[in-house]
Amino acid sequence: MLRKSVVAMAAILSLSVSARAEDHPSRPSLIVAISVDQFSADLFAQYRSTYGGGLKRLSQGVVFPKGYQSHAATETCPGHSTILTGNRPGHTGIIANNWIDQSVARDDKLVYCAEDPTIAGSSSKNYTASLQRLRVPTLGDRLKAADPASRVIAVAGKDRAALMMGGRGADQIWWWGSREFTSFTARPTTPVVEQINSSIAATVSAEHAPFPLPDNCAALDHPVAVTPTTSVGTGQFTRKSGDYRGFRASPEMDATTLALAGALIDEAGLGRRGHTDLIAIGLSATDYIGHIYGTAGAEMCIQMGQLDTGLGRFFDRLDKAGIDYLVVLTADHGGHDLPERNRENAIADAERIDPALTLPRFNETLAARTRLKAPLLLGDATQGDLYLRRDLSSAAKAKVMKAALALLRGHRQVAAVFTHDQLRAAPEPAGPPEAWSLLDEAKASFDPERSGDLLVLLKPRITPIADPGAGTVATHGSPWDYDRRVPILFWRKGLAGFEQPLGVETVDIMPTLAAEIGLALPKTGIDGHCLDLIAGPATSCPGK
Ligand code: ZN
């Protein structure tokens, strides 16, 4: 009986293998992993009916409209660290963009996620790029370990996006500096990078006329006052000559990143050498536009159209080159519109953070309460991770902790405060990400060595920018679904499309891609699970 069932099982397995072989006559020769910074599931849903280019093509593939960056710290660096590692930030070690490390020789003790803080004279703003903080390998690292002839390239509008998706073993990692694409100082440039950089210099030296306003954007094209003297909502990315910041926060940035990605694919012969290659692409303009103009105005509408067109052009280029590529497109986090427009758009309780909660002011309140000298807590902001100053006595630490918990837990804008001990003791999150508790989400970005003594989570619809006058009007970073939900889209020529509306995680992307290219993974140490990309009884995942 046992023998019979083993034989039957073997027959089923061989059937599923041959069914898979029919669906996928060969493995893709190139993985194209794209992250669109701040491309929330809400933006994807809002604009889906308008797509006619690359996003239309991806919308007809295997679509997970409710992917999750499942963790609480929905920032760029943690988000990108999940996409190609299969691990949540608690295990990638990338708990935030910046965090406090009281062992470094810096006054503010702030370290950046993708730097080497031991370099003399460096700071979290002026640093040397490094991957030393990433605790796990990327898909590219695993690919090259299995086949050293595979080539891995990463290119992005932000260093942390390129670095976290590329990994230590990548052959080339390029990111936008302030005026050109750059890399580690020790690595040489290439002819196509030089060519693109000089064409950027020529482009930016000329002014840019406004992008056209598509018909579907007309209803969004009205001003929303942010301060008595500033408004957003009607921008069309008109750029003066020499304005590199304007270039970066416009559709021009993504078009240039895609042009460089295409040129690097050609230059390195990716996907045409009989080995599986990988290119990771980080498109950052959506994020800059979301921060500067918000997510619901004419600016974002124009960007969505330009992104769709730009991706279409990029895929056409790969088609013409005859490359058999598998695309995955997702985002590092979602986003939230500015409270001033949210209030105009039916969300009456949207508001900015109470200035009393900004870290310098909160530290003064704490000092007055405890009769100790400010600052007592270190952090990047009064939300997220906060650290007790380590030169305080144990008695002073206990006093500060008690006072901080009482003040924060009594504040009307604070949803939850977790202590380091609470988070360390919490079980690893499991089950559908749409059903997680705040503690589950916080645990997913908790690293016992790097996380704070306290983790502060604000209530939904609170924008943690007290003063929008400096130019950043909206943001992300919260544990709420508008910041956690991102689309996850897979497309390959010949792959039958289907849509799965239930929640899956961005950590599922790496095991899914590994299965598609026949890369074996260890049984433990990876948070994500392979997603079966074949509609029907066959499966693309191993061991199922
Ligand atoms: Zn981001």
CATH class of the largest domain, named: Alpha Beta
Q: Ions, cofactors, ligands: which are bound?
A: zinc ion
| Architecture (CATH level 2) name of the largest domain | 3-Layer(aba) Sandwich
CATH homologous superfamily heading of the largest domain: Alkaline Phosphatase, subunit A
Mean pLDDT: 94
Class inferred from helices and paired strands: alpha/beta
Percent of residues in helices comes to 25-40%
Count up the domains.
2
**How would a crystallographer describe the biggest sheet?**
10 strands, mixed
Low-confidence stretches: 1-24
End-to-end Cα distance = 22 Å
Please count the beta strands (DSSP E, at least 2 residues each): 20
CATH topology of the largest domain: Alkaline Phosphatase, subunit A
Morphology call:
globular
Helical element count?
Answer: 19
SSE arrangement:
Elements: H1 2-23, E1 30-36, H2 41-47, H3 54-59, E2 62-68, H4 76-83, H5 89-92, E3 98-100, E4 110-112, H6 139-146, E5 152-156, H7 159-166, E6 172-176, E7 181-182, H8 191-205, E8 224-227, E9 230-232, H9 244-248, H10 251-268, E10 277-283, H11 285-293, H12 298-320, E11 325-330, H13 339-344, E12 351-352, H14 359-370, E13 377-379, E14 384-388, H15 394-409, E15 414-419, H16 420-425, H17 438-444, E16 454-458, E17 462-463, H18 481-484, E18 485-492, E19 498-499, E20 504-505, H19 509-516
Parallel strand pairs: 1-10, 1-11, 2-19, 2-20, 5-6, 5-10, 12-17
Antiparallel strand pairs: 2-18, 3-4, 6-7, 8-9, 11-18, 13-14, 14-16, 15-16
Helix pairs in contact: 4-7, 8-10, 10-12, 11-12, 14-15
The site of zinc ion has 6 residues, from loops.
